[in-house]
Amino acid sequence: MEPTAKDMAQTKVNQPPRDRWRALADRGVQGAVTVSGLLVLMTLLLIFVYLLLSVLPLFKPVSLGAARPLPIVNASPAWAIGMDVQQRIGYRIDQQGEGRFYRLVAQGYDSAGQLLAQHTLLSKPLLLARAAGERDLFALAQADGRVAVVQADFASEPPQWHFPLGQQPLAFDPQGKPLALLALASTRAGATLLAAVTDDHRLLFGRFSPSAPAQQTQVQLKAAAQQLLLTPDGRQLYLLSGNQLARYQIDGAQLSLRETRTLGEFPPYQLTTLPGGNALLIRAADGSLREWFTVEHHQQRQLTPIQQFAHRVLPDELLVTEPYRRVFASWQPGGAFALFSTIQPQPLLNTRVHGEVQQMAFAPRGDGLLLETAQGWQHYAVDNPYPDVTWRSLWQKVWYENYPEPAYVWQSTSGEDSYQAKFSLIPVIFGTFKAAGYSMLFAVPLALAGAIYTACFMSAGLRRVVKPAMEVMGALPTVVIGLVAGIWLAPLMETYLLAVIALPLLLAIVVLLCGWLVNQFAPRRLAPGLDLLLLLPLVVLTVWLAFAIGPRLELQLFGEPLHYRLGEGYDQRNTLVVGVAMGFALVPIIFSLAEDALFSVPTALSRGSLALGATQWQTVVGVVLPSASAGIFSALMIGFGRAVGETMIVLMATGNTSIIDGSLFQGLRALAANIAIEMPEAVVGGSHYRVLFLTALVLFIFTFMFNTLAEAVRLRLRKRYTLNQETP
Hints:
By secondary structure, the protein is an alpha+beta fold. The chain has 16 helices and 32 strands. Strands 1, 2, 28, 29 and 30 form a five-stranded antiparallel β-sheet that branches.
């Protein structure tokens, strides 16, 4: 008969005060533990939500804001338009050589669209060229071959036009012939490069600087040219004649023809340069749009078609690129507008723009777009902050400039403004598991063997010394281990590389040989702990002999140290150093947890096995290890989780090279170390910043998944062997 509520209340009243306080304390502790567990789960959930919210803007769809019309009077067709970084002032260069500045945003007494300044840049120009990648730098040419270089200056009030080479036009062609084509570039050293093709098929090239004399050269062409381009870095010149594209290398003021490439069978072609080095967008008459750049083949660079964009080019289509990022936009008659990034063939945005567009220009940061129509200007806000980050660039191979083939690349920053950031997560994920795998390969055999020996074979007195010593070793800061590994261990392993590689095999042979000798010449069981005292001197002697003989043996076998023999395949701070250093940090953790699991196996099980005639080793393998398997598995998974999340050892003991290479002698970069290295340099809210948060989210998910899987397996093992032990 079950007790009623009245009986339970009566029992509670009849309890002594000490028992009532004990029950109250038990309930309080139980509640505190429950609340603490819920707080831990809530904290983990909040961390996940915070990381997710930091990452989501990366995958926000690109959008084009509403058009803001500006009443600009178009007295003459425009050759070029543009605007400043803040998108407050726009400029326009027309075919009469007039340069005008307009207010884009109302300010004070100035209304939007108001004329701020006007200047005659060159009288009766015939050609205009814009420097690719360089903001607001133009060259205008007259019929007699004279050229003026101008640049918009927004710093002055009102804005003005600046003439880098002087306001007086340059006599670019000494013969005074009309120019058919014109190209312009500016170098990082401040020199201005001009190239032109004359009506009589001469290719002119010159390097001009206010502080140095002009340098000019000319090349006689065999055929008429349709297009002339200078790359933004000023190192190459492209000349298109029909379907033949010639690439010239620029050395000072000299031109050297490197190659002539046949583009295909669908002329005419149109070339557009992309910011950076040597990438081109080539449009063909068949409607295809491809990206080309030079790729190294057999120690020579050759123009190579890289990818074809999912876009069909129409006649009279306008194509414009951003000044710094490899982003371009196209407008087709009828209003179709598409926005592309060169890291993927599909467009980032497909929409429609009203009006017949005559000119287009991006804002310097790519966050605005200015269009000119017959009715005036249209100003759009562009929301495209992360064009270099897509699912394809994060998880698939991408063919970047200056790379021989598609590859997984993590290289986030560079000293050049036009650098294309590369954010593939595969190299850092590979480096994380590579470091964790090799460190576990080093730590698991030592830790488990030590745990088995300590729990099952070592004397109680010696165990009371060894177990605390191992646990104290686990408290050693990982930054100290990383420092020692990077400064002392890495050079030591480089000097004694052959000895280090041979030591695992040599030590295994010594241990087995020692056991065989003890069984042969000392058949009676040694006193507990004496076998360890006999083995340790042999291990130390083996290590000393290996390090003493190893360098000499390297010279005898290879004629030089082994790391010299490996050449570029060997990096001093490599995976082998990380495996040993991080394995040293993992051994105490795995040892302590595994030893506790083994020592907690009921002695009745092992005594029963021994009583049935099993040897001590058979008892360990057949009884103790299966019974402790759940605890041992937990120890291994906790050690693996520690290895995956380790930061300082991987940061200090590797070359931090984000490469995919399974070699023991090459470096790596792990997720946690990557965050520690690059987060201080990342601009808050930028692509780099958010991708680092994405790596943190990936690390969080990996850790959560492995821990959840480990706990599920541990509970299953525990249930299985608990049932087996309870079965009569």
